[in-house]
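Entry 0007
Protein: Cysteine dioxygenase
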Amino acid sequence: MSDSDLQIAGDILAVPHLLQPSRQHPGTVAEFAGLACSIAADRAQWEHLVAYDATTRWNHLLRTGPGYQAWLLSWLPGQGSGLHDHGRSSGVLTVLVGTLTERTGRGMRALSQGAQRVFAPGYVHEVVNDTLEPAASLHVYHPGLTEMPMHTCAAELAGATAARAARPLSR
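Output (structure tokens):
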């Protein structure tokens, strides 16, 4: 009789104390993107909360957990974020309603409903509603957002963005 892995290690199902507990909160980029997708798909979770303010961009902290925050933002035509990064936080931006334009050192990209962008800490961009219709988006940050440094120069945009490119999430 030969030794098999099962004989050497034992039956994992017979020793439940060795099993990893299921996580209650996301911990990887893929899990944060999945969280954003699940929130976006459940309109009852966020649709009644969206408000539009002509004087400033509206936002609402929708959810928070260990190491992350999920923010709901609204955008009237012409409203934008200004050129900024997210400090030490990574992020997932998901368009919930309408179309937003993301401007980076690599150019402009229209993001329509359902589009998702994943970005690393220090990624410099600007998000604007260039359309004539209101828009709403979900932003999940890991770790939670503690700073949002503003940038003033297009040269900063080109240099910082080239080093930290965002990428669309493959589905």
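Curator remark: The CA atoms of residues 101 and 110 lie 4 Å apart. Residues 160-165 have pLDDT under 50 and may be disordered.
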